[in-house]
Design goal:
This protein is an alpha/beta fold. It contains 17 helices and 21 strands. Bound molecules: 3-acetylpyridine adenine dinucleotide (N01). 3-acetylpyridine adenine dinucleotide binds next to helix 5.
């Protein structure tokens, strides 16, 4: 920690309402942050672009949307009564249940009164002299706040395809990450889905059931593991609730925010039979986790040969499920397993056995245009009533870059991150005092159970603000050296794995021109938490605190 002294207290623009903190976003992160800051006695304004609370779970209303982490582990842990009173109904709760939960939390802790909906923050500009952030919105709001906390989400800036004519389509267009609030009926319609990531895999089977005909445009096949979703076992729910403290602790100390037995053997150290028996047990076990297939052996994510054993097991299952061998071959991924985001599906491969579902190879015959009546590829014209873009996000940095964030001396965050995000712990940025990013780039975030990582950041930020207040500190700012070193470490940790070898949004390759770096920290949730706690225990080592 470095301490300096600085004059402060010059009021910012006349019309700006002065408050203690602005939180951008009212999803799981923003609402929790609001609650904690209020407990500290701070005045807080939350701005939320959506028409309701919930962030991801407000926007992703497409048929089939559900979380792929077990309900008992994907929820808030901050209030023992809350975690006891809420009853989950499914292993992997669907979007409406998650939204009900989030709204229940908002009501229970009276959070709504400090949230302004349908309001997009457009700029956050730091006033050096006043040591305050001036925040403006698309609805003309202006507030001046000591703290600016970005709870903007990692997957909240939807990305469309880079093909011409999108606006010319006369039918209905949807992006999975910006789904309408009203129910959408696909009965009797000819529907296209572009994209076979987590969103496409969830939406495809349900749209297929309703539509007259569904055409799926797949550019890269994904490894889709059976979700094994089912009604929650009441005994399981009771058991977890009876030992929630121990369960939470284990999740927090784990690699991915979901406690798993620690692997001690490499996949190549055991016989093929033993390996396949393990893979089959994960495939068939209705209680397996998203990460079960990744965490059984020590080397799945670090050794290509080991990785291939899991990959081939899944390819074999695809061939068993899909009756047309040509379709099965197209659905069989050729690349590494698990270093693109693992995907869980329900009836996904089975859906391709329907007569009214067609799979188009958008790698061999790329999409070239959206037309008034449908889509064109290099080989064919298609007519559709509806197009669903399941084309993903400008992940990790997209939502932050959408805001004009300017720190000391008017420096732009977008420009600072032109070659990739540079952060200290994924929490703070040099030159941007008192600005915190919840699950920001350079933290485990998307490589973990988000509920665990969000709470860790919210708690860390709350503690930091509390310490600042009691020590009479006005600003906390990441130091440039610490930030450089951390960012280098994030990259090196990624380089020790197979992640950088594959094109994916984890490395930014889905957005043309986006720097190819590792956007999340793969060092593990538990180790990362220890590092953050150590930084705090050492008096916020790597931060400059100014009186
Ligand atoms: O987005 P994606 P997503 N022509 O980027 C394709 C979380 N999530 O919304 O791979 C044809 O994964 C693109 O093809 P390719 C989860 O973390 C979780 O599905 O680039 N295709 C790809 O298939 C997830 O990872 C859940 O070759 C084109 C797809 O669009 C993250 O959100 C549910 C194309 C995009 O896949 C993002 O998932 C949903 C083109 N021109 C989301 N352009 C849960 O289950 C793009 N594509 C909790």
């Amino acid at each position: 920690m470095t301490t300096t002294s600085q004059h402060s207290g010059i009021p910012t623009g006349k019309e700006a309402r002065e408050i203690d903190a602005v939180v951008v976003g009212a999803g799981l992160a923003g609402l929790h942050m609001l609650h904690k800051l209020r407990e500290l006695g701070l005045s807080v304004q939350v701005y939320e672009a959506g028409g309701g609370l919930g962030g991801t779970w407000y926007w992703n209303r497409y048929p089939g949307a559900r979380v792929d982490v077990k309900s008992m582990y994907y929820n808030y842990s901050f209030d023992p009564e809350l975690e006891q009173e809420w009853e989950w109904t499914e292993k992997l709760p669907p979007q409406p249940e998650l939204l009900r939960y989030i709204n229940h939390v908002a009501d229970r802790f009276d959070l709504r009164k400090d949230v302004q909906l349908r309001t997009r923050v457009t700029s956050a500009v730091y006033d050096d002299a006043a040591a305050r952030w001036r925040i403006t919105t698309d609805r003309g709001d202006a507030v001046s706040a000591r703290f600016a906390i970005m709870a903007t989400g990692c997957l909240s800036a939807p990305k469309m395809v880079e093909i011409p004519g999108i606006e010319t389509f006369r039918g209905r267009s949807f992006h999975t990450g910006n789904w309408p609030e009203q129910d959408v009926d696909f009965t009797g319609r000819r529907v296209a889905v572009i994209g076979t990531g987590s969103s496409g895999v969830q939406v495809i089977p349900l749209v297929a059931e309703a539509a007259a005909a569904l055409t799926v445009f797949q550019r890269t096949a994904n490894y889709v593991l059976p979700a094994g979703n089912h009604a929650i076992d009441p005994e399981f729910q009771r058991d977890i609730k009876s030992r929630y403290r121990e369960v939470r602790k284990a999740n927090r100390e784990s690699s991915f925010g979901i406690a798993r037995p620690v692997a001690t053997t490499g996949a190549l150290e055991v016989s093929e039979d033993e390996r396949n028996a393990f893979y089959r047990s994960v495939w068939e076990d209705k209680d397996s986790e998203l990460v079960s297939m990744l965490t059984g052996y020590t080397d799945t994510l670090t050794d290509e040969v080991a990785n291939e054993t899991a990959a081939q097991f899944i390819r074999d299952r695809i061939a068993e499920i899909v009756s047309d061998p040509a379709v099965a071959r197209l659905l069989q991924p050729s690349g590494l397993f698990g270093v693109k985001r693992p995907v869980l599906g329900t009836n996904y491969y089975e859906t391709y056995n329907r007569d009214d579902v067609r799979l188009v190879d958008a790698a061999a015959t790329p999409l070239t245009a959206v037309t008034a009546s449908g889509l064109e590829t290099t080989h064919e014209s298609f007519e559709f009533d509806d197009i669903i873009y399941a084309t993903g996000y400008d992940a990790m940095t997209g939502a932050l870059a959408a805001i004009d964030i300017r720190g000391r001396g008017g420096a732009s965050l977008r420009e600072k991150w032109a070659d990739g995000p540079v952060t200290y712990l994924g929490l703070a940025v040099a030159g941007f005092p008192n600005l915190f990013t919840i699950t920001g780039p350079g933290s485990p975030s998307v490589l973990s159970n988000m509920a665990v990582s969000i709470e860790q950041h919210v708690d860390w930020i709350t503690d930091a603000i509390e310490v600042m207040r009691s020590a009479g500190v006005t600003t906390m700012e990441a130091e440039s050296d610490a930030e450089q070193e951390w960012t280098r470490h994030v990259g090196e940790a990624g380089d020790m794995t197979l992640y950088p070898k594959v094109d994916s949004w984890y490395v930014g390759s889905n957005v043309p021109g986006k720097p190819r770096v590792m956007y999340a920290y793969i060092g593990g949730v538990g180790a990362y938490r220890e590092k953050c706690d150590q930084v705090a225990a050492d008096g916020y080592d790597g931060f400059t605190l100014t009186q």
